[in-house]
């Protein structure tokens, strides 16, 4: 995989490499990100790699309800973008162990300090929809990444994956299709505009 070769070359030039994995919903970002994390863990050890999912920076459902944004969950303004950038900056600095949140899909909520990036981590995989977004707050992400990989996939393949994902999370088929049309696909269009900012474009797994 060219991504693996590129990461290996980068690791020869610097102490810590931050690689972003981005792309539209359902493209296969998480699969690629976790594959890279697992590969590094198996060859270098768990303390040689860190994983930072952007989804951990979702605003809680309670906050989304308060803001009136629950029906748009997943849009750029439903995340703590400034907090995400601040954590990435600490990780890029490399001087401390950094604890990061994850997202629990079973309850649909972010969970604080679920993951850690140890000081020994030479590779940090950052995964999320909006890593290349060039708007205030989000525009602080891209400069912190050594590489940005865009994961693409056929629209129908993505939509089928999303349908299954939403149904598994408790939505009816009709609710899932409505969410895809009104939330996921508009977000996908926004993310597609960041494709040209990626260093590498790969097909989703």
UniProtKB/TrEMBL annotation:
<dbReference type="GO" id="GO:0005524">
    <property type="term" value="F:ATP binding"/>
</dbReference>
<dbReference type="InterPro" id="IPR006083">
    <property type="entry name" value="PRK/URK"/>
</dbReference>
<dbReference type="GO" id="GO:0016301">
    <property type="term" value="F:kinase activity"/>
</dbReference>
<feature type="domain" description="Phosphoribulokinase/uridine kinase">
    <location>
        <begin position="19"/>
        <end position="203"/>
    </location>
</feature>
<dbReference type="InterPro" id="IPR027417">
    <property type="entry name" value="P-loop_NTPase"/>
</dbReference>
<dbReference type="Pfam" id="PF00485">
    <property type="entry name" value="PRK"/>
</dbReference>
<keyword id="KW-0418">Kinase</keyword>
<keyword id="KW-0808">Transferase</keyword>
<protein>
    <submittedName>
        <fullName>Phosphoribulokinase / Uridine kinase family protein</fullName>
    </submittedName>
</protein>
């Amino acid at each position: 995989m060219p991504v693996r070769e590129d990461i290996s070359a980068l690791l020869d030039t610097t102490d810590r490499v931050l690689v972003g994995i981005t792309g539209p919903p359902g493209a296969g970002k998480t699969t690629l990100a976790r594959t890279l994390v697992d590969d590094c863990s198996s060859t270098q050890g768990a303390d040689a790699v860190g994983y930072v999912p952007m989804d951990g920076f979702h605003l809680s459902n309670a906050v989304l309800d308060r803001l009136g944004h629950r029906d748009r969950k997943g849009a750029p303004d439903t995340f703590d973008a400034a907090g995400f950038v601040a954590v990435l900056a600490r990780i890029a600095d490399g001087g401390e162990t950094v604890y990061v949140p994850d997202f629990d899909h079973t309850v649909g909520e972010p969970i604080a300090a679920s993951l850690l990036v140890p000081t020994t981590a030479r590779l940090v995989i950052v995964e999320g929809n909006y890593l290349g977004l060039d708007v205030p707050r989000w525009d602080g992400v891209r400069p912190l990444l050594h590489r940005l990989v865009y994961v693409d996939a056929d629209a129908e393949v993505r939509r089928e994956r999303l349908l299954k994902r939403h149904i598994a999370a408790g939505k009816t088929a009709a609710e899932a299709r409505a969410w895809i049309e009104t939330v996921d696909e508009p977000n996908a269009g926004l993310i597609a505009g960041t494709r040209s900012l990626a260093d590498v474009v790969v097909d989703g797994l």
